[in-house]
Amino acid sequence: MHDLTSRPRRLRTTSAIRDLVAEARLDRRMFVQPHFVVPGAGISEPIEAMPGIEHQSVDRLVETVAADLELGIRAVLLFGIPEEEAKASDGRAAYSGDAVVPAAISALKGRFGEGLAVMTDVCLCAYTDHGHCGLVRNGRIDNDATLPHLARMALAHARAGADVVAPSDMMDGRIGAIREALDDDGFAETAIMSYSVKYASAYYGPFREAAHSAPAQGDRRSYQMDARNRREAVLEAGLDVDEGADILMVKPALAYLDVVADIRESFPQPLAVYNVSGEFSMVKAAAARGWVDERALVLENWHAFRRAGADIIITYHARQAFAEDWL
Ligand code: PBG
Ligand code: ZN
């Protein structure tokens, strides 16, 4: 047994050698920190199921982002949470004059300019009284009637100065509708990151608590993808590419790494993964009980995203990882 020529263990002997030959590497520039923005001032309220994440009014958000930038986090993804009274069947508060996300965008771009990439979620579910991502007609989601509302919301974000708008609704044709609305209004340079491959997932539970956006009736299975489907992901992403998506996304991340690898293979566009709320909360809950090593677990997950082919990682763990120098 001394004639083994190939001994993979040779390259595992020391951490210096392991680091030298590591295939998947993480880079601090690939992370995006999500934020939940609420109306008002002086508000910073913890979200129970998501330790370390808060609902913040614009003034407090600006302070948080300033501190994050000091740590090195240069990209944010904004979600707006309107007052309950502002919700309507067509979600019009998503693009009204006093909408909270455009205010947050202007404040952030005004303060940080090109040093910060501002991305915004574009979806109606936080703004509709029924909680669906599209308009409801006769108990069904009216795909095509939803498109102009999404386009208006994206345009409101672009006008406020968003660098990237990110539609998460999963209506057919929304990338094309948004691209056209942006171009017609002089925002040809505003990029679109499409939630191209978004599955109907139980992993969004904590987010829906945080965003008060759970559907009052039914679920999202008539528009978000079926977890049993893999080939369909390539179809979805292909449509978005044809309609003008600049960045593609797979969401959730952990349970869909086969899909991440497929999209990486099939398209040259930058690929983001969304390490969603349930994935974050599961790690937090287990770590709080001392059942897992939080840092090691998170890095293992992130390396898996990179191995599968992700370029951009959207994660609620970004701030802690940067603050505690995990990378
Ligand atoms: C809105 C939206 C959701 C998430 C991002 N945008 C929730 C949903 O589709 O129900 C989930 C994010 C997360 O769980 O972290 N459409
Ligand atoms: Zn939605």
Describe this structure in words.
- This protein is an alpha/beta fold and 327 residues long.
- The chain has a single domain (26-323), classed as TIM Barrel (Alpha-Beta Barrel), CATH 3.20.20.70.
- Helix content is 39%, strand content 17%.
- The chain contains eleven helices and twelve strands.
- The protein has helices at residues 15-21, 58-71, 100-112, 143-160, 174-184, 205-211, 231-243, 257-266, 277-288, 294-308, 318-323; strands at 31-37, 44-46, 54-56, 75-80, 117-122, 136-137, 140-141, 164-167, 191-198, 247-251, 271-275, 312-315.
- It has an eight-stranded parallel β-barrel with strand order 1-4-5-8-9-10-11-12, surrounded by seven helices.
- Helix 8 (257-266) links the parallel strand 10 (247-251) and strand 11.
- Helix 4 packs across helix 5 (174-184) and helix 8 packs parallel to helix 10.
- The longest helix is centred in the middle third of the chain and has 18 residues, at 143-160.
- The structure holds ligand PBG and zinc ion (ZN).
- Ligand PBG binds at residues 121, 123, 125, 133, 168, 204, 207-208, 220, 276-277.
Task: Describe this protein with a few key phrases.
single chain, 327 residues, 8-stranded parallel β-barrel, binds zinc ion, alpha/beta, two-stranded antiparallel sheet, 39% helix, TIM Barrel, binds ligand PBG
Write the layout of secondary structure elements.
Layout: H1 15-21, E1 31-37, E2 44-46, E3 54-56, H2 58-71, E4 75-80, H3 100-112, E5 117-122, E6 136-137, E7 140-141, H4 143-160, E8 164-167, H5 174-184, E9 191-198, H6 205-211, H7 231-243, E10 247-251, H8 257-266, E11 271-275, H9 277-288, H10 294-308, E12 312-315, H11 318-323
Helix pairs in contact: 2-3, 3-4, 4-5, 7-8, 8-10
